[in-house]
Amino acid sequence: MGQSPSGTNYTLRDEIRDHWSKRAATFDDVPGHEIFSDRERRAWHRLLSRHLGPANGRRALDLASGTGVISHLLDDLGFEVTGLDWSEAMLTKAKAKARSRDRRITFRLGDAEQTREDDASFDVVVTRHLVWTLVDPAACFREWLRVLKPGGTLLIVDGDFVRQSPIERLLARLETLVLKGRKPPAAASSAPPDLAEQHRSILSRVHFKDGARAEDIASMLAECGYERIVVDTRLGAIHLAQACRMSWRSGLIRHVQHRYVVVAAKPPA
Ligand SMILES: C[S@@+](CC[C@H](N)C(=O)[O-])C[C@H]1O[C@@H](n2cnc3c(N)ncnc32)[C@H](O)[C@@H]1O
């Protein structure tokens, strides 16, 4: 593990963890992170139920749980939830929020690449906005297969935050014309201005530095031994609800970005 940002042992993984720790205090202020309406919450419930089926007290692992937004959705649905994150600052926020809402969710410190959970101990593994930032996604996918019960389900929510859609490119061109050379506001990243450069730098060095595409994740999952792999891009109801709390520009961009769910199963025993 690294000791200081300037020390030779300070790795990209340390930098990623420290980046998120710095963002923990304000993470839940951002629409698209925390949920600010029942409309959005219901849309998430529908998406999760569509792919995971009834919870019936089954065990769910929320990987890279951050402040616990997805953990709370899974708890709402009746899963027995463990949230795991490697940032102490995120975990502190997650634990405080769960206490304030009187939720029984277990949050623990850990690395998604080496969870230290038992073999075949979870019915479902869910993770939002982790895969795009992984250094070694294949190692993680194998680890998640290990902790899933036979027949269990992995659900990944993620997006390509690098490649611009034609509408984003058009918007950028129009803004350059209108602003006559002044810099348009950053839209693809929700990082606060003081951390935006670090966010861009991290993004340029991770495995999916050219953007995390659903089809690439799906083929990597197949190589790692998952089956029944499905890509679902029907996130419109969630994005519409989120857009009500965003600038029109951010709401539009969110809608046209390549954002998706990838669902995969561990083969039965
Ligand atoms: C964009 S935030 C997403 C948080 C949460 N999943 C959500 O959607 O609200 C990314 C989170 O991933 C965590 N993270 C990144 N890499 C990780 C790893 N290898 N192991 C555990 N946590 C990780 C960070 O600490 C951060 O809390």
Question: How are the SSEs ordered, and which strands pair?
Answer:
Elements: H1 12-27, H2 38-52, E1 59-63, H3 69-77, E2 80-85, H4 88-100, E3 106-109, E4 122-128, H5 137-147, E5 148-160, H6 166-179, H7 193-203, H8 214-223, E6 227-232, H9 236-243, H10 248-256, E7 258-265
Parallel strand pairs: 1-2, 1-4, 2-3, 4-5
Antiparallel strand pairs: 5-7, 6-7
Helix pairs in contact: 1-4, 1-7, 2-3, 2-9, 9-10
Give a written overview of the molecule.
This protein has 10 helices and 7 strands. By secondary structure, the chain is α/β, with parallel strands linked by helices. The protein has a single domain (12-265), classed as Vaccinia Virus protein VP39 (Rossmann fold, 3-Layer(aba) Sandwich), CATH 3.40.50.150. It is globular, with a radius of gyration of 18 Å. It starts with 11 loop residues before the first helix and ends with a strand. The mean pLDDT is 92.
